[in-house]
Amino acid sequence: MDEKQNSTEETVKEESVVEEMETSTEETVKTEETVEDKLAELEKANAELKDQYLRKCADFDNYRKRMMKEKQDAFDYANTNILTDLVAILDDFDRALAAGVESDGKEKTDLKPVVDGIKMINKQLRGLLEAKYNLSCYGVAGDLFDHDIHEAIAKVEGAVAEPTLSEVYLKGYKLKERVIRPAKVMVTMPDGSVSAPESTETENQQTDSASAEN
Questions:
Q1: How many domains does the chain have?
Q2: Judgement on whether residues 126 and 141 belong to the same structural domain of the protein
Q3: In this structure, which of 48, 84, 99, 191 has its CB flanked by the most CB atoms within 10 Å?
Q4: Which CATH number does the domain housing residue 156 bear?
């Protein structure tokens, strides 16, 4: 009786050990499957992030190239408007020059039509640049000398009260209020034979007084 009971208990124990081993094996398999699943998910997420990164890099590179092209285009074609206007002036020059040539190709002896045409073009061009582009010219003999806008390339003494432009070699030009080319002039300096106007003398005295105080 005792032997049978012991045999039964041993059999139960063996079955229990087998079940535990089977359970442990199943859990191990499940654990391995879970790790593999997580690894697969991480690899998938990594691939997606890598793809997004490469797309962003490509988008940024395209954006950079587009900005560089737009910047270069803006630089290359910045003067399109003014050049389009000047082309029309060149057409007028062609017509003026054509007016000085006979139908057989010989130059006319009377060049008055050419001169009149050039005068008209000159007036048209100056009007265009002043009205549309705020470009104005200055510098006329008789104007007072201003070292801020005039460049004296020669000087003489004469009967003037203040430094005065006696000759203008090249006219000056302003873009709005900025001088883009100073007028190149000859200046007549006072020789002492003419007194400066009283208002000018007063201004000079005030300037000298202010300078002394400083």
A1: 2
A2: no
A3: 99
A4: 2.30.22.10
What is the edge-to-edge ordering of all strands in the sheet holding 178-181? 135-138, 172-175, 178-181
Interhelix angle 80-98/112-133, rounded to 10 degrees, is 170
pLDDT in tens, 108-152: 788 888 888 889 998 999 899 999 889 999 999 999 999 999 999
Q: Is the whole model's pTM more than 0.90, yes or no?
A: no
Identify the bridge partners of residue 104 per DSSP, sorted by sequence position.
none
- Has residue 174 been placed in a domain? yes
Question: For residue 183, what are the domain limits?
Answer: 137-201
Q: In a 3-state reduction of DSSP, which class is residue 161?
A: coil
pLDDT for 60 beyond 50: yes
Write the DSSP symbol of residue 107: B
- DSSP string covering 112-141: HHHHHHHHHHHHHHHHHHHHHH-EEEE--T
